[in-house]
Amino acid sequence: QVQLVESGGGLVQAGGSLRLSCAASGRNFRSYAMGWFRQAPGKEREFVASIAWSGGGIVYADSVKGRFTISRDNAMNTVYLQMKSLKPEDTAVYYCAGDPGGSAVVTRGDSRYWGQGTQVTVSS
Length: 124
Fold this sequence. Notes:
Layout: E1 4-7, E2 10-13, E3 18-24, E4 33-39, E5 46-51, E6 59-60, E7 68-73, E8 78-83, E9 92-99, H1 103-107, E10 113-114, E11 118-123
Parallel strand pairs: 2-11
Antiparallel strand pairs: 1-3, 3-8, 4-5, 4-9, 5-6, 7-8, 9-10, 9-11
């Protein structure tokens, strides 16, 4: 069993930066692919980024390429999402996800484990 807890969300002006963290409990974190998703009000949840257990195999949604960076620290059982040049359309609840089945499972939204989410609000 893995529990995921996101933190780092908040209110930021357009053009600003935030770093989200996702702390995982459980012994098998380092074998899990991890990812970030987001859901804006009235919209479906969408993929943001994913990373393989090794730290490679990184995939980004086109909407965040060049602005967001996903990384992980397996020693700390934590995955990060560094967000720069934030836009009002990045406003959403951001969710961390993880699965032992690999990056493809995470990227398509079928992760076994999900966090509760953290709110990111970007003002114009």
